[in-house]
Design brief:
Layout: H1 14-44, E1 47-50, E2 53-56, H2 60-66, H3 69-101, H4 107-118, H5 122-133, H6 141-144, H7 176-201, H8 206-214, H9 219-230, H10 232-248, H11 251-256, H12 268-278, H13 282-312
Antiparallel strand pairs: 1-2
């Protein structure tokens, strides 16, 4: 009996490769809207526009950016904004979530009201808050411009100068416009963070809280030593979202203060907008965009590491 000396050719099994073909559209979309813009931004950060076309300048865009006083000032404004906005939002969201967890009267109505800021775009929310303090017709302008409440001549939020800094050139205390910007951003982000913390509070065992009350623990002690540690992962996620949103958001600054008065509310995201679309210096704008992206990646990896350490410690 003669045997066949040729090896049998493997047959193509379409079923095994089907998962790959199903995710091909997603891969193409990611390459088109994420990978290509990132690579183009990296290339653009090394270029400078001249009348003859694009010219390679190496790291000159980064050097010019670092030597700009407004860039250094914007870093300070960004730190103040992120710290104030994140801290105020987390504190208010935690308090509101505790109240809603107690099933107070009309709690469903309050939950519905919480969604109102969430469905409004940043730029619209900024316009609404600007109308509140407009000097001529603002709803709060009559109170703010009362010299008896804000001596000697009242307070104009959108035009008041920033106080003298306490530490070197670091822009603290912030201007009234920056404080108002923090309040507006907090109002905008409060619904999401409140619902996130409220969902985490629902997972706290009632037996643990009841045992703590029987042992004589007060409300502050229960929240400090039991509630907050148990919902810490949710609060870390909330802080992560707040930080990334505050770092990259520009609509609120654009519509509320426009970076003013002067440059007292220039944060990095608004500086990026100003360099790119006002000065049309796309090379320096790309360099700043890369720096912001690096900060975002550092924040992402930090949150992931904190989350993993928290999971291992359980």
């Amino acid at each position: 009996m003669q045997t066949n000396s040729y090896a049998r050719a493997p047959r193509f099994d379409f079923r095994k490769s089907l998962p790959f073909w199903l995710i091909v559209p997603t891969i193409v979309v990611l390459l088109a809207i994420q990978v290509y813009p990132a690579l183009y931004t990296a290339w653009l950060s090394l270029q400078e526009r001249t009348p003859e076309g694009w010219k390679f300048v190496g790291t000159n865009n980064f050097t010019r950016l670092f030597s700009t006083a407004l860039f250094k000032e914007s870093i300070g404004h960004t730190i103040i904004f992120l710290v104030g906005y994140s801290a105020l939002t987390l504190i208010l969201a935690f308090i509101i979530a505790l109240l809603l967890k107690r099933n107070v009267l009309f709690s469903g109505f309050y939950l519905t009201l919480l969604f109102v800021p969430w469905i409004i775009a940043d730029i619209i929310a900024g316009l609404v808050f600007r109308l509140l303090v407009a000097p001529e017709y603002g709803l709060l302008s009559g109170i703010l411009q009362n010299p008896n409440l804000f001596p000697p001549n009242g307070l104009s939020v959108l035009t008041a100068a920033r106080p003298d800094p306490w530490i070197g050139n670091f822009p603290f205390p912030p201007s009234p416009a920056m404080v108002f910007l923090i309040l507006a951003a907090t109002w905008r982000a409060l619904p999401f963070v409140t619902l996130l913390i409220l969902a985490a509070l629902q997972t706290v065992p009632g037996e643990v809280l009841e045992s703590a009350r029987i042992d004589g623990a007060g409300g502050w002690q229960i929240n400090r030593y039991i509630t907050i540690p148990l919902i810490l992962p949710a609060m870390v996620v909330a802080l992560f979202n707040l930080t990334l949103g505050g770092m990259n958001g520009v609509g609120m600054v654009f519509s509320l203060t426009g970076g003013g008065p002067g440059t007292t509310t220039y944060v990095l995201s608004f500086l990026l907008y100003n360099i790119g679309w006002t000065q049309l210096a796309f090379g320096r704008a790309a360099a700043l965009a890369l720096l912001i992206a690096i900060v975002n990646w550092i924040l992402i990896f930090s949150v992931l590491r904190i989350t993993r350490v928290n999971e291992r410690s359980r």
